[in-house]
Protein backbone atom coordinates (compact mmCIF):
# COMPACT_ATOMS: atom_id res chain seq x y z
CA UNK A 1 0.00 0.00 0.00
CA UNK A 2 1.39 3.28 -1.02
CA UNK A 3 1.98 5.89 1.63
CA UNK A 4 0.42 9.30 1.36
CA UNK A 5 2.70 11.86 -0.20
CA UNK A 6 3.42 14.66 2.24
CA UNK A 7 2.96 18.24 1.03
CA UNK A 8 6.14 20.15 0.32
CA UNK A 9 7.12 22.68 2.99
CA UNK A 10 8.51 25.52 0.95
CA UNK A 11 9.86 27.35 3.99
CA UNK A 12 11.59 24.18 5.12
CA UNK A 13 13.21 23.77 1.74
CA UNK A 14 14.40 27.39 1.79
CA UNK A 15 15.88 26.90 5.21
CA UNK A 16 17.60 23.73 4.00
CA UNK A 17 19.14 25.47 1.04
CA UNK A 18 20.28 28.37 3.26
CA UNK A 19 21.75 25.88 5.70
CA UNK A 20 23.57 24.11 2.86
CA UNK A 21 24.94 27.41 1.57
CA UNK A 22 26.10 28.24 5.08
CA UNK A 23 27.85 24.88 5.35
CA UNK A 24 29.58 25.44 2.03
CA UNK A 25 30.64 28.95 3.07
CA UNK A 26 32.01 27.70 6.37
CA UNK A 27 33.91 24.92 4.65
CA UNK A 28 35.30 27.35 2.08
CA UNK A 29 36.31 29.81 4.81
CA UNK A 30 38.08 27.03 6.68
CA UNK A 31 39.88 25.92 3.52
CA UNK A 32 41.00 29.50 2.78
CA UNK A 33 42.27 29.90 6.33
CA UNK A 34 44.18 26.63 6.12
CA UNK A 35 45.69 27.59 2.76
CA UNK A 36 46.71 30.99 4.06
CA UNK A 37 48.30 29.40 7.12
CA UNK A 38 50.35 27.07 4.90
CA UNK A 39 51.50 29.96 2.68
CA UNK A 40 52.34 32.15 5.66
CA UNK A 41 54.20 29.31 7.36
CA UNK A 42 56.27 28.72 4.24
CA UNK A 43 57.08 32.42 3.92
CA UNK A 44 57.91 32.66 7.62
CA UNK A 45 60.26 29.71 7.22
CA UNK A 46 61.92 31.44 4.27
CA UNK A 47 62.38 34.60 6.31
CA UNK A 48 63.72 32.49 9.17
CA UNK A 49 66.41 31.11 6.87
CA UNK A 50 67.18 34.62 5.61
CA UNK A 51 67.45 35.81 9.18
CA UNK A 52 70.02 33.13 10.01
CA UNK A 53 71.93 33.83 6.82
CA UNK A 54 72.30 37.57 7.41
CA UNK A 55 74.38 39.22 10.05
CA UNK A 56 72.66 40.96 12.92
CA UNK A 57 72.11 44.65 12.30
CA UNK A 58 70.53 47.36 14.35
CA UNK A 59 70.25 51.07 14.90
CA UNK A 60 73.79 52.42 15.17
CA UNK A 61 75.04 54.23 18.26
CA UNK A 62 78.30 56.09 18.79
CA UNK A 63 80.58 54.15 21.14
CA UNK A 64 83.77 56.23 21.30
CA UNK A 65 85.50 59.27 19.79
CA UNK A 66 89.20 60.02 19.44
CA UNK A 67 90.05 62.71 20.45
CA UNK A 68 87.36 62.83 23.12
CA UNK A 69 84.64 65.39 22.56
CA UNK A 70 85.31 68.46 24.69
CA UNK A 71 89.05 67.88 24.91
CA UNK A 72 91.58 70.72 24.79
CA UNK A 73 94.65 69.89 22.73
CA UNK A 74 98.00 71.63 22.35
CA UNK A 75 98.25 70.77 18.66
CA UNK A 76 95.71 69.83 16.01
CA UNK A 77 95.02 66.08 15.66
CA UNK A 78 95.66 64.44 12.33
CA UNK A 79 92.22 62.83 12.28
CA UNK A 80 88.99 62.38 14.23
CA UNK A 81 87.87 58.76 14.55
CA UNK A 82 84.27 57.83 15.33
CA UNK A 83 83.57 54.25 16.38
CA UNK A 84 80.02 52.90 16.33
CA UNK A 85 78.50 49.67 17.62
CA UNK A 86 77.93 48.40 14.06
CA UNK A 87 79.15 49.04 10.53
CA UNK A 88 77.90 52.37 9.20
CA UNK A 89 78.03 54.30 5.92
CA UNK A 90 79.11 57.96 5.86
CA UNK A 91 76.32 60.32 4.89
CA UNK A 92 77.34 63.93 5.46
CA UNK A 93 80.45 65.03 7.38
CA UNK A 94 81.01 68.75 8.08
CA UNK A 95 84.11 70.36 9.60
CA UNK A 96 83.94 73.84 11.16
CA UNK A 97 87.32 75.18 12.25
CA UNK A 98 88.23 77.39 15.19
CA UNK A 99 87.57 80.53 13.13
CA UNK A 100 83.99 79.40 12.50
CA UNK A 101 84.56 78.57 8.82
CA UNK A 102 83.09 75.49 7.15
CA UNK A 103 85.93 73.50 5.59
CA UNK A 104 85.64 71.28 2.52
CA UNK A 105 89.19 69.90 2.63
CA UNK A 106 88.58 67.16 5.21
CA UNK A 107 88.65 63.64 3.73
CA UNK A 108 86.40 60.88 5.04
CA UNK A 109 87.03 57.14 5.02
CA UNK A 110 85.03 54.24 6.47
CA UNK A 111 86.12 50.82 7.66
CA UNK A 112 83.43 48.70 9.30
CA UNK A 113 82.36 50.37 12.53
CA UNK A 114 84.87 53.23 12.25
CA UNK A 115 84.57 56.53 10.41
CA UNK A 116 87.84 58.44 10.08
CA UNK A 117 87.89 62.15 9.25
CA UNK A 118 91.38 63.26 8.14
CA UNK A 119 91.80 66.91 9.14
CA UNK A 120 93.68 69.55 7.11
CA UNK A 121 97.06 70.51 8.58
CA UNK A 122 96.31 74.25 8.71
CA UNK A 123 93.54 74.22 11.33
CA UNK A 124 93.65 77.49 13.30
CA UNK A 125 93.63 77.77 17.08
CA UNK A 126 90.23 77.61 18.76
CA UNK A 127 87.25 75.26 19.05
CA UNK A 128 86.61 73.00 16.04
CA UNK A 129 83.46 70.99 15.36
CA UNK A 130 83.08 67.80 13.35
CA UNK A 131 79.38 67.28 12.60
CA UNK A 132 78.53 63.80 11.33
CA UNK A 133 75.54 62.05 9.79
CA UNK A 134 75.97 58.34 9.10
CA UNK A 135 73.63 55.60 7.91
CA UNK A 136 72.97 52.62 10.16
CA UNK A 137 72.18 49.18 8.81
CA UNK A 138 68.45 49.60 9.40
CA UNK A 139 68.48 52.48 6.90
CA UNK A 140 68.10 55.28 9.44
CA UNK A 141 70.45 58.24 9.93
CA UNK A 142 72.48 58.80 13.10
CA UNK A 143 73.84 62.31 13.65
CA UNK A 144 75.82 64.26 16.19
CA UNK A 145 78.83 66.50 16.68
CA UNK A 146 82.34 66.20 18.12
CA UNK A 147 83.82 69.35 19.68
CA UNK A 148 87.50 69.81 20.52
CA UNK A 149 89.71 72.82 21.05
CA UNK A 150 93.22 73.56 19.80
CA UNK A 151 94.80 75.81 22.39
CA UNK A 152 92.36 78.33 23.87
CA UNK A 153 88.64 77.46 23.40
CA UNK A 154 86.48 79.79 21.32
CA UNK A 155 82.74 80.22 20.85
CA UNK A 156 82.37 77.88 17.84
CA UNK A 157 79.06 76.00 18.07
CA UNK A 158 77.77 72.86 16.30
CA UNK A 159 75.44 73.62 13.39
CA UNK A 160 71.81 73.94 14.43
CA UNK A 161 69.33 71.39 13.16
CA UNK A 162 66.67 72.60 10.73
CA UNK A 163 64.99 69.27 10.16
CA UNK A 164 61.53 70.10 11.54
CA UNK A 165 59.97 70.61 8.11
CA UNK A 166 61.69 67.53 6.69
CA UNK A 167 60.65 65.46 9.71
CA UNK A 168 57.04 66.49 9.14
CA UNK A 169 57.33 65.39 5.49
CA UNK A 170 58.86 62.04 6.53
CA UNK A 171 56.05 61.47 9.05
CA UNK A 172 53.29 62.36 6.57
CA UNK A 173 54.83 60.17 3.89
CA UNK A 174 55.07 57.28 6.34
CA UNK A 175 51.39 57.64 7.32
CA UNK A 176 50.43 57.75 3.63
CA UNK A 177 52.51 54.63 2.98
CA UNK A 178 50.74 52.79 5.82
CA UNK A 179 47.37 53.80 4.40
CA UNK A 180 48.30 52.36 1.02
CA UNK A 181 49.65 49.10 2.44
CA UNK A 182 47.11 48.35 5.16
CA UNK A 183 43.92 50.08 4.02
CA UNK A 184 44.55 49.77 0.28
CA UNK A 185 46.14 46.34 -0.17
CA UNK A 186 44.27 44.91 2.82
CA UNK A 187 40.96 46.21 1.46
CA UNK A 188 41.53 44.62 -1.95
CA UNK A 189 42.45 41.30 -0.30
CA UNK A 190 39.24 41.45 1.74
CA UNK A 191 37.17 42.10 -1.39
CA UNK A 192 38.71 39.25 -3.39
CA UNK A 193 39.07 36.56 -0.72
CA UNK A 194 36.53 37.26 2.02
CA UNK A 195 33.66 39.40 0.69
CA UNK A 196 33.67 38.01 -2.89
CA UNK A 197 32.36 41.45 -3.77
CA UNK A 198 33.79 44.78 -4.93
CA UNK A 199 31.36 46.80 -2.80
CA UNK A 200 33.07 49.49 -0.73
CA UNK A 201 36.27 49.74 -2.77
CA UNK A 202 36.29 53.55 -2.89
CA UNK A 203 38.35 53.93 0.29
CA UNK A 204 40.93 51.25 -0.68
CA UNK A 205 41.29 52.90 -4.13
CA UNK A 206 41.92 56.28 -2.50
CA UNK A 207 44.35 54.69 -0.03
CA UNK A 208 46.33 53.13 -2.88
CA UNK A 209 46.33 56.45 -4.75
CA UNK A 210 47.83 58.05 -1.61
CA UNK A 211 50.19 55.19 -0.79
CA UNK A 212 52.12 54.97 -4.07
CA UNK A 213 53.24 58.64 -4.20
CA UNK A 214 53.82 58.52 -0.42
CA UNK A 215 56.25 55.64 -0.88
CA UNK A 216 58.08 57.65 -3.54
CA UNK A 217 58.15 60.70 -1.26
CA UNK A 218 59.46 58.52 1.59
CA UNK A 219 62.37 57.44 -0.59
CA UNK A 220 63.31 60.98 -1.55
CA UNK A 221 62.87 62.33 2.00
CA UNK A 222 65.05 59.52 3.32
CA UNK A 223 67.84 60.57 0.97
CA UNK A 224 67.52 64.20 2.07
CA UNK A 225 67.65 63.14 5.71
CA UNK A 226 70.66 60.91 5.23
CA UNK A 227 72.67 63.65 3.52
CA UNK A 228 71.29 66.61 5.49
CA UNK A 229 70.13 68.32 2.29
CA UNK A 230 67.27 70.82 1.76
CA UNK A 231 64.08 69.78 -0.10
CA UNK A 232 65.29 71.57 -3.24
CA UNK A 233 67.93 68.82 -3.59
CA UNK A 234 65.21 66.33 -4.58
CA UNK A 235 65.80 67.39 -8.17
CA UNK A 236 69.34 66.01 -7.97
CA UNK A 237 70.44 62.38 -8.08
CA UNK A 238 72.33 62.36 -4.77
CA UNK A 239 69.43 61.80 -2.31
CA UNK A 240 67.81 59.13 -4.49
CA UNK A 241 71.11 57.31 -4.98
CA UNK A 242 71.93 57.16 -1.28
CA UNK A 243 68.36 56.12 -0.39
CA UNK A 244 68.46 53.21 -2.85
CA UNK A 245 71.75 52.10 -1.31
CA UNK A 246 70.11 51.54 2.10
CA UNK A 247 67.87 48.64 3.11
CA UNK A 248 64.90 51.02 2.97
CA UNK A 249 65.28 51.54 -0.78
CA UNK A 250 64.45 47.98 -1.93
CA UNK A 251 61.78 47.72 0.80
CA UNK A 252 59.95 50.77 -0.55
CA UNK A 253 60.18 49.36 -4.09
CA UNK A 254 58.52 46.16 -2.87
CA UNK A 255 55.82 48.26 -1.17
CA UNK A 256 55.17 50.18 -4.40
CA UNK A 257 54.99 46.90 -6.31
CA UNK A 258 52.48 45.48 -3.81
CA UNK A 259 50.22 48.52 -4.16
CA UNK A 260 50.41 48.39 -7.97
CA UNK A 261 49.41 44.72 -7.91
CA UNK A 262 46.49 45.59 -5.62
CA UNK A 263 45.32 48.19 -8.13
CA UNK A 264 45.47 45.57 -10.88
CA UNK A 265 43.53 43.15 -8.67
CA UNK A 266 40.62 45.60 -8.62
CA UNK A 267 39.90 44.63 -12.22
CA UNK A 268 37.54 41.77 -12.90
CA UNK A 269 39.92 39.17 -14.24
CA UNK A 270 40.62 35.52 -13.57
CA UNK A 271 43.97 36.37 -11.99
CA UNK A 272 42.60 39.06 -9.62
CA UNK A 273 42.67 36.82 -6.53
CA UNK A 274 46.23 35.72 -7.22
CA UNK A 275 47.34 39.34 -7.55
CA UNK A 276 45.58 40.25 -4.29
CA UNK A 277 47.41 37.42 -2.51
CA UNK A 278 50.80 38.42 -3.91
CA UNK A 279 50.14 42.05 -2.96
CA UNK A 280 49.34 41.02 0.62
CA UNK A 281 52.58 39.03 0.82
CA UNK A 282 54.38 42.10 -0.54
CA UNK A 283 53.14 44.13 2.41
CA UNK A 284 54.76 41.74 4.87
CA UNK A 285 57.97 41.49 2.87
CA UNK A 286 58.41 45.26 2.56
CA UNK A 287 58.09 45.67 6.33
CA UNK A 288 60.41 42.74 7.07
CA UNK A 289 63.20 44.08 4.86
CA UNK A 290 64.09 47.19 6.86
CA UNK A 291 63.42 49.23 9.98
CA UNK A 292 64.15 49.11 13.70
CA UNK A 293 62.05 46.02 14.39
CA UNK A 294 62.94 43.91 11.36
CA UNK A 295 66.70 44.37 11.75
CA UNK A 296 66.81 43.74 15.49
CA UNK A 297 68.77 40.66 16.53
CA UNK A 298 67.90 37.83 16.47
CA UNK A 299 66.69 38.41 12.93
CA UNK A 300 65.59 34.78 12.75
CA UNK A 301 62.79 35.84 15.10
CA UNK A 302 62.17 39.48 14.28
CA UNK A 303 61.93 39.30 10.47
CA UNK A 304 59.25 36.56 10.40
CA UNK A 305 57.47 38.27 13.31
CA UNK A 306 57.26 41.64 11.55
CA UNK A 307 56.21 39.88 8.33
CA UNK A 308 53.30 38.12 10.03
CA UNK A 309 52.45 41.24 12.03
CA UNK A 310 52.14 43.26 8.84
CA UNK A 311 49.85 40.66 7.26
CA UNK A 312 47.65 40.57 10.35
CA UNK A 313 47.31 44.36 10.36
CA UNK A 314 46.43 44.40 6.64
CA UNK A 315 43.74 41.73 6.97
CA UNK A 316 42.14 43.43 9.96
CA UNK A 317 42.37 47.14 9.07
CA UNK A 318 41.84 46.60 5.35
CA UNK A 319 38.42 45.04 5.99
CA UNK A 320 36.97 47.97 7.95
CA UNK A 321 36.05 50.34 5.08
CA UNK A 322 34.44 47.64 2.87
CA UNK A 323 32.56 46.28 5.91
CA UNK A 324 31.10 49.73 6.60
CA UNK A 325 29.84 49.89 3.00
CA UNK A 326 28.33 46.39 3.24
CA UNK A 327 26.62 47.06 6.57
CA UNK A 328 25.29 50.45 5.37
CA UNK A 329 23.21 48.69 2.69
CA UNK A 330 22.70 45.17 4.06
CA UNK A 331 21.64 42.38 1.73
CA UNK A 332 21.17 38.66 2.16
CA UNK A 333 24.92 38.21 1.58
CA UNK A 334 26.01 40.67 4.30
CA UNK A 335 25.73 38.31 7.24
CA UNK A 336 27.82 35.48 5.67
CA UNK A 337 30.56 38.04 4.83
CA UNK A 338 30.55 39.39 8.40
CA UNK A 339 30.73 35.85 9.77
CA UNK A 340 33.60 34.87 7.47
CA UNK A 341 35.57 37.96 8.40
CA UNK A 342 34.87 37.41 12.08
CA UNK A 343 36.49 33.97 11.95
CA UNK A 344 39.51 35.10 9.95
CA UNK A 345 39.91 38.24 12.09
CA UNK A 346 40.14 36.06 15.20
CA UNK A 347 43.16 34.32 13.64
CA UNK A 348 44.68 37.68 12.61
CA UNK A 349 44.27 39.07 16.14
CA UNK A 350 46.02 36.02 17.60
CA UNK A 351 48.95 36.48 15.20
CA UNK A 352 49.12 40.19 16.01
CA UNK A 353 49.17 39.55 19.75
CA UNK A 354 51.93 36.92 19.61
CA UNK A 355 54.19 38.74 17.16
CA UNK A 356 53.61 42.11 18.85
CA UNK A 357 54.59 40.66 22.23
CA UNK A 358 57.75 39.09 20.81
CA UNK A 359 58.81 42.32 19.08
CA UNK A 360 58.10 44.43 22.17
CA UNK A 361 60.26 42.15 24.34
CA UNK A 362 63.14 42.38 21.86
CA UNK A 363 62.91 46.15 21.44
CA UNK A 364 62.30 47.20 25.05
CA UNK A 365 64.47 44.64 26.91
CA UNK A 366 62.95 45.74 30.24
CA UNK A 367 59.39 46.81 31.25
CA UNK A 368 60.59 50.13 32.68
CA UNK A 369 61.45 51.26 29.13
CA UNK A 370 57.69 51.58 28.47
CA UNK A 371 57.63 54.80 30.49
CA UNK A 372 61.30 55.82 30.60
CA UNK A 373 61.92 56.19 26.83
CA UNK A 374 60.20 57.95 23.95
CA UNK A 375 60.00 54.67 22.08
CA UNK A 376 58.28 53.08 25.06
CA UNK A 377 55.79 55.94 25.38
CA UNK A 378 54.83 55.54 21.73
CA UNK A 379 54.39 51.80 22.30
CA UNK A 380 52.31 52.45 25.43
CA UNK A 381 50.04 54.79 23.45
CA UNK A 382 49.72 52.19 20.70
CA UNK A 383 48.84 49.48 23.24
CA UNK A 384 46.13 51.67 24.76
CA UNK A 385 44.61 52.25 21.31
CA UNK A 386 44.88 48.56 20.41
CA UNK A 387 43.09 47.65 23.63
CA UNK A 388 40.17 49.85 22.55
CA UNK A 389 40.27 48.26 19.10
CA UNK A 390 40.14 44.77 20.60
CA UNK A 391 37.22 45.75 22.81
CA UNK A 392 35.25 46.94 19.79
CA UNK A 393 36.17 43.80 17.84
CA UNK A 394 34.90 41.64 20.72
CA UNK A 395 31.69 43.69 20.86
CA UNK A 396 31.17 43.16 17.13
CA UNK A 397 31.86 39.44 17.25
CA UNK A 398 29.96 38.41 20.35
CA UNK A 399 27.07 40.87 20.47
CA UNK A 400 26.39 42.95 17.37
CA UNK A 401 26.99 40.23 14.75
CA UNK A 402 24.73 37.67 16.56
CA UNK A 403 22.08 40.40 16.87
CA UNK A 404 22.29 40.95 13.12
CA UNK A 405 21.92 37.21 12.55
CA UNK A 406 18.78 37.10 14.71
CA UNK A 407 17.21 39.79 12.59
CA UNK A 408 17.37 42.40 15.31
CA UNK A 409 17.99 46.06 14.49
CA UNK A 410 21.71 45.92 15.09
CA UNK A 411 22.90 47.31 11.77
CA UNK A 412 23.32 50.97 12.87
CA UNK A 413 25.19 49.94 16.01
CA UNK A 414 27.46 47.61 14.04
CA UNK A 415 28.19 50.38 11.53
CA UNK A 416 29.04 52.86 14.28
CA UNK A 417 31.31 50.31 15.95
CA UNK A 418 33.20 49.60 12.71
CA UNK A 419 33.53 53.35 12.03
CA UNK A 420 35.05 53.81 15.49
CA UNK A 421 37.40 50.88 14.78
CA UNK A 422 38.53 52.63 11.61
CA UNK A 423 39.16 55.91 13.45
CA UNK A 424 41.23 54.14 16.12
CA UNK A 425 43.16 52.25 13.43
CA UNK A 426 44.08 55.54 11.73
CA UNK A 427 45.23 56.93 15.08
CA UNK A 428 47.45 53.86 15.56
CA UNK A 429 49.05 54.36 12.14
CA UNK A 430 49.73 58.02 12.95
CA UNK A 431 51.28 57.10 16.31
CA UNK A 432 53.54 54.29 15.10
CA UNK A 433 54.86 56.50 12.29
CA UNK A 434 56.63 58.39 15.08
CA UNK A 435 58.92 55.40 15.63
CA UNK A 436 60.86 56.57 12.57
CA UNK A 437 62.45 59.27 14.73
CA UNK A 438 62.96 57.29 17.93
CA UNK A 439 65.58 54.54 18.33
CA UNK A 440 64.39 51.56 20.40
CA UNK A 441 65.76 51.11 23.94
CA UNK A 442 67.81 48.06 22.89
CA UNK A 443 70.03 50.33 20.76
CA UNK A 444 70.77 52.83 23.51
CA UNK A 445 74.37 52.27 24.48
CA UNK A 446 74.90 52.78 28.23
CA UNK A 447 77.19 55.68 28.93
CA UNK A 448 80.57 54.50 30.17
CA UNK A 449 81.67 56.49 33.22
CA UNK A 450 84.93 58.39 33.08
CA UNK A 451 87.70 56.67 34.97
CA UNK A 452 90.69 58.43 36.49
CA UNK A 453 93.43 56.36 38.11
CA UNK A 454 95.79 58.26 40.46
CA UNK A 455 98.75 56.20 41.62
CA UNK A 456 101.68 56.92 43.94
CA UNK A 457 103.93 54.64 45.94
CA UNK A 458 101.83 55.26 49.03
CA UNK A 459 98.27 55.04 47.68
CA UNK A 460 96.08 54.44 44.64
CA UNK A 461 92.80 56.29 44.14
CA UNK A 462 90.38 55.32 41.39
CA UNK A 463 87.68 57.82 40.46
CA UNK A 464 84.55 56.96 38.46
CA UNK A 465 82.46 59.86 37.14
CA UNK A 466 78.97 59.23 35.74
CA UNK A 467 78.03 60.23 33.13
CA UNK A 468 81.27 62.20 32.79
CA UNK A 469 79.68 65.09 30.94
CA UNK A 470 79.00 68.72 31.68
CA UNK A 471 76.02 68.97 33.99
CA UNK A 472 75.25 66.95 37.10
CA UNK A 473 77.62 64.04 37.80
CA UNK A 474 78.10 61.39 40.46
CA UNK A 475 81.58 60.50 41.76
CA UNK A 476 82.65 57.13 43.18
CA UNK A 477 86.04 57.02 44.93
CA UNK A 478 87.87 53.74 45.52
CA UNK A 479 90.79 54.07 47.94
CA UNK A 480 93.67 51.57 47.94
CA UNK A 481 97.17 51.32 49.31
CA UNK A 482 100.21 51.28 47.08
CA UNK A 483 99.95 47.45 47.08
CA UNK A 484 96.28 47.62 45.89
CA UNK A 485 94.87 46.63 49.29
CA UNK A 486 91.75 48.48 50.56
CA UNK A 487 92.64 51.72 52.33
CA UNK A 488 90.54 52.63 55.36
CA UNK A 489 89.86 56.32 55.90
CA UNK A 490 88.00 58.37 58.46
CA UNK A 491 86.84 61.01 56.01
CA UNK A 492 87.34 61.86 52.35
CA UNK A 493 86.97 65.15 50.49
CA UNK A 494 86.73 65.85 46.75
CA UNK A 495 87.91 69.20 45.39
CA UNK A 496 87.29 70.30 41.79
CA UNK A 497 88.35 73.39 39.88
CA UNK A 498 88.46 74.65 36.30
CA UNK A 499 90.91 77.58 36.22
CA UNK A 500 90.53 78.26 32.48
CA UNK A 501 86.85 79.07 33.05
CA UNK A 502 87.47 80.97 36.27
CA UNK A 503 85.95 78.29 38.53
CA UNK A 504 87.76 78.30 41.86
CA UNK A 505 88.23 75.08 43.91
CA UNK A 506 84.96 73.74 45.28
CA UNK A 507 85.13 71.12 48.00
CA UNK A 508 82.59 68.37 48.69
CA UNK A 509 82.59 65.78 51.48
CA UNK A 510 82.28 62.13 50.42
CA UNK A 511 80.12 59.58 52.23
CA UNK A 512 81.03 55.92 52.71
CA UNK A 513 78.52 53.66 50.98
CA UNK A 514 77.52 50.09 51.84
CA UNK A 515 79.62 48.92 48.87
CA UNK A 516 82.78 50.08 50.67
CA UNK A 517 83.37 53.00 48.25
CA UNK A 518 83.15 56.72 48.93
CA UNK A 519 80.40 58.59 47.07
CA UNK A 520 79.87 62.23 46.15
CA UNK A 521 76.50 62.65 44.46
CA UNK A 522 75.01 65.39 42.29
CA UNK A 523 78.12 67.45 41.66
CA UNK A 524 77.47 70.39 39.35
CA UNK A 525 80.04 70.61 36.53
CA UNK A 526 78.75 73.56 34.48
CA UNK A 527 81.39 73.45 31.71
CA UNK A 528 83.23 70.91 29.63
CA UNK A 529 86.98 70.97 29.86
CA UNK A 530 89.97 69.67 31.81
CA UNK A 531 88.98 69.84 35.47
CA UNK A 532 91.56 69.64 38.25
CA UNK A 533 90.73 66.90 40.76
CA UNK A 534 92.14 66.70 44.30
CA UNK A 535 91.17 63.90 46.70
CA UNK A 536 92.07 64.11 50.37
CA UNK A 537 91.74 61.01 52.57
CA UNK A 538 92.15 61.36 56.33
CA UNK A 539 93.70 58.01 57.27
CA UNK A 540 94.42 58.78 60.95
CA UNK A 541 94.07 61.84 63.13
CA UNK A 542 97.63 62.72 62.17
CA UNK A 543 97.92 61.49 58.59
CA UNK A 544 96.15 62.71 55.46
CA UNK A 545 96.87 61.42 51.94
CA UNK A 546 96.21 63.85 49.10
CA UNK A 547 96.39 62.88 45.41
CA UNK A 548 95.72 65.13 42.40
CA UNK A 549 95.07 64.67 38.69
CA UNK A 550 93.02 66.08 35.80
CA UNK A 551 89.63 64.97 34.53
CA UNK A 552 88.45 65.53 30.93
CA UNK A 553 84.74 66.40 31.01
CA UNK A 554 82.92 66.31 27.65
CA UNK A 555 79.99 68.58 26.62
Automatic annotation (TrEMBL):
It is found in: Cell membrane. GO terms for molecular function: copper ion binding. Keywords: Cell membrane, Copper, Membrane, Metal-binding, Signal, Transmembrane, Transmembrane helix. The keyword Membrane applies. Its main location: membrane. GO terms for biological process: copper ion transport; response to copper ion. The keyword Iron does not apply. It comes from the Bacteria. This is Possible Copper export protein. It comes from Bradyrhizobium diazoefficiens (strain JCM 10833 / BCRC 13528 / IAM 13628 / NBRC 14792 / USDA 110).
